[in-house]
Design brief:
mainly alpha; 6 helices
Length: 132
């Protein structure tokens, strides 16, 4: 059974040099391994709080994906005539983003609702972790 990974662990294992660069700016000693880096990130956030979380959000490896999903989940504001709610309650721009995410940038026609819900769930959880 797998255990949940924290934001600090995710960053320490996926972008260790970027994490250490941030910590170095605050005179936090270099970590010898990922576990130590994780603990240093936790201490950094405890001291610098929102400022620290904003800096960590900037180096998050999935920042662009989270940003796209967050924009796609925002309420419709009627910015252009090409953006409209269809019969399923989705907007045409969401469908375009879904297809691009699924195909790695190439246009594709299908993306299931469960895939979108999973993606939105990950985005909401990540954003809430970043805001805490």
């Amino acid at each position: 059974m797998s255990s949940a990974i924290t934001l600090y662990e995710y960053l320490a294992y996926n972008v260790p040099s970027e994490c250490q660069d941030i910590l170095n700016r605050y005179d936090i000693p270099s970590a010898q391994n990922e576990q130590e880096l994780t603990e240093n990130l936790k201490a950094y956030v405890r001291v610098y709080r929102d400022e620290a979380l904003e800096e960590l959000a900037e180096i998050h490896p999935d920042k662009d994906l989270i940003s796209q999903l967050a924009k796609a989940s925002m309420p419709y504001k009627g910015k252009s005539e090409s953006e409209y709610l269809n019969a399923s309650g989705a907007m045409s721009r969401i469908e375009l983003i879904e297809g691009q995410l699924r195909s790695g940038g190439e246009k594709q026609d299908t993306f299931t609702k469960s895939d979108m819900m999973l993606g939105l769930g990950v985005a909401v959880l990540t954003l809430s972790l970043l805001k805490q």
